[in-house]
Amino acid sequence: MTQHTTGTASALVQQTGTNCLGDTTSSRKKLSLSPHQYTPQKTAKMPAELHGVKAADVHKQVKQLIHELVNIKDSTGEFLLKLDDGRIIDTKGWNDWEWTHGIGLYGIWKYYELTGNPDDLAVIEDWFKNRFEEGHKGKNINTMAVFLTLAYVYEKTGNETYRPWLESWAEWAYHDLPRTKYGGMQHITYLEVNDQQLWDDTLMMTVMPLAKIGLVLNRPHYVEEAKKQFLIHLQYLFDAPSGLFFHGWSFHDGGHNFARARWARGNSWVTIVIPEFIELLNLQPDDAFRAHLVNTLEAQAAALVPLQAESGLWRTLLDVPESEGSYPEASATAGFAYGILKSQRKKYIGPEYEAVAVKAVKSVLENITPEGELLKTSFGTGMGHDLQHYKDIPQTSMPYGQAMAMMALVEFLRVYI
């Protein structure tokens, strides 16, 4: 893929744009109605610009992100996943099946929820049609990620050809996915069995899809299993002294958190999934499970505030300075922005984090090229046994980076409504 130079939305923030929310006056001019037939209604005018950012420019950026997402190419083969049995997984390009595509689909779905543009729904359904015709390459924690979006699409369209896929994969996750001690979902992937390991990524990749499928198919035992997985993962991955999450936990060797890495994107999955899960299950304020999730989320949000750089970005190792090799990372920043903005909108946390979230959104905009590529996106990151592992991960445009930026910008667009 061509590497773009940073022509950013710093410039975008200053551009002129029309009000993307529509002009009711111009619409009325097209109607041939007499004064007796039409009574003007007083409507609140939606702001075209907030926090120095124009809504029209944000919409433009989301569309560019989608275009780049579905056209990303791994021209060198550097990021292909080559398996021992001869299978090759294109984790970077659009036309394959991995967690990277699962997050990409969900980002497009979020924009479709906001706009209702049938073209975006068509992109999603075309992806599923093509992958189902090809057949999947194996069930694992990461390949399950695509079914979060499919469950929403099935709920929307009622396309019965989707149901067998939802049923088969949810049954696998509920019954056959390997478990760790105490019943945690073992983070099995294409490459590794990861025996007795819990990863924070699992909450986004498998637990959220299982919960949504449980609701759509009316299988409450799936939802209860998802709640159980949240509790287990929070128990072993949340670092109470720092307020942040470790990337993983192993039950081997007496139990440990590997490198004790407080890795940014892993933390951002938690920032995303907690408000998503509370909303999905419609957990009420007096629900004890909700209270536990909210308390954890608030502790994390408070811990993130002093770790945000002046640029608005967070580093790939949150508590390691750049001088020690921890570079600024945009996909995690987008994830934090999305989770904080949504949590504020849903009143799960207070308004005191607004400035942090807006600063993060602006930093995301500043790292999107004119062609729609999110810069400063770290490649897929396996479990590290030392911190150097995370510092050495290369940066390249990826479907999940595009999608996480979309999610942040789509949630930001709600402030204009």
UniProtKB/TrEMBL annotation:
GO terms of molecular function: hydrolase activity
Region Disordered, annotated ranges: 20-44
Keyword Hydrolase carried by entry: yes
Signal peptide: none
Keyword presence, Transcription regulation: no
Transmembrane segments: none
Keywords: Hydrolase
InterPro entries according to UniProt: 6-hairpin_glycosidase_sf (IPR008928), 6hp_glycosidase-like_sf (IPR012341), Glyco_hydro_88 (IPR010905), PolySaccharide_Degr_Enz (IPR052043)
Record-given protein name: Unsaturated rhamnogalacturonyl hydrolase YesR
Organismal lineage: Eukaryota, Fungi, Dikarya, Ascomycota, Pezizomycotina
